Protein 1
Amino acid sequence: TPKMLVQLAKCIAFLPYRDELWLASTDTIEVYHLSDYTQIKALSHSLGVISALAVNEAGDVVAGTVSGEVAVWNSAAYEILHVLDRSCTAEVTALVAAEGIVIAGVSDGGMVQW
């Protein structure tokens, strides 16, 4: 059920124009249809535990991790475009992605911009 999916997720990103819901758990990102909650894909990765997700205007999904890594996923191809340089020194707790800029809020109180 939708409620169970959300409870299992550490963080969530919505792509309504693609009818997608991205849920990050421990070591996977699961992609579901928003309309009926059927799974589209489970994306494995080696980034570690995802702690924040954001979507930019191009539809790319930006993921931040507990270890401070930030990666950009091409949501159409379901693959990582690139991992941003490791500027975060603590867990990424919030992300904003727009107009070619990514800003990460970090658990040590800092902010990093790419």
Protein 2
Amino acid sequence: MGASNSCTNGLSCAYEELEVVESAVIDVQIFDEQGRLLCAERLDRRSDVGSLKMKIKQRTGTPATIQKLSQLLPMSEEPIVDLGCSLLHHPQVGSKPLMVRLLAQSGPFAMVTSWKEVELWDLRAEEGVHKLRLEKNFTVQCVAVGWEERRLMVAGAGLQIWDLDTGARAMSVGDQLFTEKHAGEICCIAIDWRSKRAFTGTTKGSIHKWDLSVDEAPEQVTWRHTRRVLCLDVDWAAQRVLSAGQDSVLKTVDISSRDGLERSLEGHNGWVQCVSAAWNHIHSTLPAPVHRGLSGSTDLTLKLWDLEEHKELLTLQGHDSMVQCLTVSWEAYVALSGDLNGSLRYWDLNSGLCLRDFRTSSSISTLTVDFARNRALTGSPDRRLRLWNTEKGVCLRELPRFANGITRVAMDWAGSFLLGTSKGPDWDALDRDIAENAQPEACPMREWTQRGSWDGLAEEEEDPTALSENTILLTRSNDGL
């Protein structure tokens, strides 16, 4: 059965007459956005769209999860979607050879999580590009993304590892008996993708060490909390763990030995919901590397800790509701924190001063920051992602509503997910789109003076001993930094 040799829309005509045996195979030619031939494949007639995407991934390096395919003959440009049937029985595909245009999403990409869904989003296109097919009864408590490894770990009642290239589940570890009888659900996770090791904290206060190279139940470590573990940070090189949770206590543990040395840090009067740690940090004002940690709590404060001397250095006050998330640049010694009332605060950890405060209309449940680019991405219960300029304190882009309230977000700031493909995330293009098409949402940002008052606002003069509601309350240990 012959095929026409005509091409339209300026396509470089690489379409040759191909004999199609309808009962056995289908021939496919893949073109890029400019109409250049990328590859040609002959597939079994039972192959579906997912199989075609995997062939394209093998030939071009483009992850199947970010491929968009459209049919060129006939020139309908209708998207080809995976309907669970073979290519030959797809509504847009007849018995003739198939010519397909490949449009690869260019990102930048974020992994967005709610209690029931995990979805890969393209921030420039402002759309979800791939949603994981989780079981209906699986509640997502936490996730960890390895962008360069193209792997995703989803945790709740056990652990699931997903392949971001294919969008398929690669492994499930931990079983229902382990979850119900021994540990409860997993609340937080820290993973080293290269060594395939992980630590998890659970609803029952236990902490477990996993070897992900084998499908076995994890090993319970020697330390635990009295209540739910809410956060973990691990320095795999230094072999140190910092954990915290509902018992208001932070614990540091040396995991280089089986019976790791455990130390406790107390000072918060509420749940500790987020932590960040840096062991062997090179501080510009100190002669030797130091161990530092930052924690955020429902008591409305953040605390800076000396993790070597096991003492508090600073208490940062200014949030008017519980602190829910934080991110630290230990190199620049600054941090960004978000709270229940929608306030984002940018802190100088040397002085303890809040340099900027900007707000949104919804609670900040999660955030991720690129300090070098002055960008932050936040997620909220109102189902919206917001991209911020942290230097100016403005919301650059508010993405369309996610299906459910957002609990976690992970951003591929470095573009690692697209390594090995023909293109990377075009941040300049995203910035141009924002400048040309979007009106930035002016969010109330206020600059702190050294005295702790807002610039441009009159200070209270009636009672000079009284503290205004906008005053930073700063405490410092006698040892300073």
Protein 3
Amino acid sequence: MYFNRVVLLLLFVTWLLVSVVDVHASSYRDLLLQFGGVLGGKVTVFNDKEVDSVLQVINDCLKEAPRYSIVLHGNGSLVVPQLTRFNKMHHLVTMDNLHPLVVLYKDKRSHLTRANLILSIAYIASVSWSRQSANEVYDHHFVISFDTRLKRYHTFSHTYSALSLSLDENIFSSDVLSMCSLFQPFPFTKVGVAAAAEPLVANVKLLSYNVWNTNKLDGETYDDRMDRMGKLLSNSGADIIALQEVRYDNTMASNHGNSQISCLQSYLQEYQYVFQPAMSYGIKGYVRVEEGVALLSKYPIISHDYILLYRNGYNYDDDYHQRICLHVEVAVPVIRRLHVFVTHLSLNAVSRLRSVVEIWKFMSRHEGNKVLMGDMNTEPHSHTIRFLKGSLTVDGVYTENLRDVWDYTHNVKNSSGLTFSTLEDQLTKRIDYIFTYLLPGNSVQLVGLLDDNLRQSQATSDHIGVSAQLKLTG
């Protein structure tokens, strides 16, 4: 009986929302699981109206972007950039992570038609400018999500960089900036008396923070909590911020809108950002709720990708949520490239251990300096953390040179590094971590906690953040 009611509800919803179904279900050749509950199908057909709509969203983002990252006319108006990439993907509902959900709906002639249910449409777009006089190219990259129910566009990712064609390097993060009056350099200093041959030093502050999705406490609104959190993150002084439990929720009645990353980025307007959903929470009355991880950076984001992590199908109750590991390549001063990995591990112990093995293999694909940040949902004595620290081998795999930054601490007041839970009288667990893989000449200088000391009914999140400052010299 319950199953029949669900089917009838789906039929009714899809009949009302004809515009969100795809009658060309068979046209998808390569459907791939994008995240839990959502398959992606590339679409090669689009019209001028949707291109114009996406370009309008891009134009609005560019108006808020730092002036050094865009090209302006002499009167201060924006030079219209060239559209260099425009890809489109339908995000289709799947109940088994293998096949798209097929529904029936009545068309305009009252004929029953089989179709796939489109949850959202993702647009991957890039625009660029070329400055012939300076031999430079400026690129901005976007991932824009169209909510098929609300008929609204939301920017999930906005990254940008500038390339000096003559030097073949990212000029936003190089010492070339210090000699270029057009740009403001990112912070770094030379050691000793200034001389071209002397080494550069960059201090980069990292922060990992679980935002507790869209929960709200008794006696206050979600907007109140987001306002506290936005100010807390803005005042943290962090250069690279990794966030977990970030949500898009089209049921939210909030002044901050439906997209949590957009809300928090409004407090951090100098930061580039990437939000990657890990799990869709289904279609209860055709609700779109997606949760994942995000990264914000003061430094240029060169690229980003992610992997889906192991999910223990035999323990559905504590492993319902699909988990991912987001990889973001950041252009930082001195070392040029920093690979940042962000994750939020499963509640299931088997999945956690399998996941960190997958994450280490993912990290090992990339050379150079790396950091892993996130909510690991487990404490330091666990097999998961022991594997990451190199004291446990799993299926012949072991980590090397990966260090928990808390091992560097000697004079931190809360030397235990507890981060959970602020909803209780006392913090009792350390489940949030930053791990570093640093090449010789680079080190961890400072480690601490981001704690506003608000607890229980006044808590900003159920976690506090963990931070570390890197000293990069080469």
Protein 4
Amino acid sequence: QFLVPCIVVLVCMCVQVHFIRKMNAAAPENQNSGNRANFTTLLVSLSFFVCTSAYPVIFSLDYMLKYISHHSWKLFQDLSMAFKCSLPLINAILFLLVLSARRETI
């Protein structure tokens, strides 16, 4: 359930980059803005991917350690709770930082 949004975002990112490159080939005078849009899309998509996929990774590690050693590790429980609460906020902050850093006029 947590990895489906990551996969959807990566597929959409690839489709968008493909169409922007296709438009750049048709109109070479807009190539710089197209490259800039591709890079911004890549940064925003990757920040979403990292922030969304980190929680299931920690959750899976906790589950595997619980299965192997038959007891839960407090560190992974704490990390799991911290990531569950803070990663969406970190993603929102990264999104705003990328957009403000990538805009052409200040």
